[in-house]
Amino acid sequence: MPKAQFAILLDGGFVTKKLQEKLKEPAKADDVVALCEEIRSHEELKDYELLRTYFYDAPPSLATVKYPVSAETYNLAATERAKHAQSLYDQLELRPGFALRMGETRLTP
After folding, report:
1. Element (H, E) at 12
2. Tens digits of residue pLDDT in 73-103
3. How far is Cα 56 from Cα 12, in angstroms, rounded to an integer?
4. What SS3 class is residue 100?
């Protein structure tokens, strides 16, 4: 008889923030995978098979904005946060059993 299945649902913003607090550096794909393995090894899940891990997040805005006082432009796509987020998504997307579900970040005037 096949095992019952379960899925892991991760709020990407919450998970990466908590991992960064714990690790004192931005979370990498290996850190997220390690967290999932920790969840998967929980005693109450021993009789279940992992179906998939869903990572839900919205990438940071990549827009170019103007500072309100100086009117100088600032490219959000060039920030370390944007670069790191895209790297994390690219790495997680390649992991077996992971599915990314991406939202949208909008800047409103």
Report:
1. helix 12-23
2. 989 888 899 999 999 999 999 999 999 999 9
3. 5
4. strand
Residue 63 pLDDT > 90: no
Closest listed residue to residue 10, CA positions, set 44, 47, 45, 38? 38
The model carries a pTM of 0.85
Q: What is the pLDDT of residue 1?
A: 73
Q: What is the pLDDT of residue 73?
A: 92
Could you tell me which of 48, 53, 47, 51 has the C-alpha nearest to residue 35? 53
Residue 14, C-beta contacts closer than 8 angstroms, at least 6 positions apart: none
Domain limits, the chain: 4-101
3 contacts 46 by C-beta, under 8 angstroms = no
- The residues facing 5 across adjacent strands are 49
Beta bridge partners of 50: 6
pLDDT at 109: 66
Distance in angstroms (rounded) separating the CA atoms of residues 56 and 13: 8
